[in-house]
Design brief:
- By secondary structure, the chain is mainly α.
- It is built from 8 helices and 2 strands.
- Helix 3 packs antiparallel against helix 6, helix 5 packs across helix 8 and helix 6 crosses helix 8.
- The chain is globular, with a radius of gyration of 18 Å.
- The mean pLDDT is 92.
Amino acid sequence: MDIYQIWTTYNKKWSKYEILAFSVLLLLTVIVLAGCVCRKKINIIQAMAIVTMVIFLGIVFGSTVFTRTSTIRQYELIPFWSWKAIFKYKDWELLKENLLNCILLLPAGALLPIIANHKVKWYRTLLFGVLVSAVIETSQLVFMRGLFEWDDMIHNGLGCMIGSMIINFFMKNKIRD
């Protein structure tokens, strides 16, 4: 599949309510951030990074939870089950899925040092990625919109951590205002 096919297959149209809810959230975020920038609590780069993060996470939640069709409640409670299957059955599609799960939250991790305006410790970004993924996985379980699995949380957390480490590597100790 090419990127366009993946995008159109897994990102169905948002409903009017989803668009409205996301628009209100985004507008409130921009208003609050504008106030913070005016009061010099954050700089404009941090504000733009936060807006980018909200948009990015909206797209992620939209494609992983809200636009999926309801099915039966599914879960896999054994950690690293996917890696056992990859090695045992040579399941390369599952390997690709694991790698894509690592990449999913990499941009969020890359935004964290910019939002913080300094380098962020690897374990904090790992925790952030796992927490965001836990919300996604729990939503999938509750709304019956996908497979709840620990492996996704681990892979998403690792991807988030890698994203922050890449930006940390290129950052000076602190971004200049």
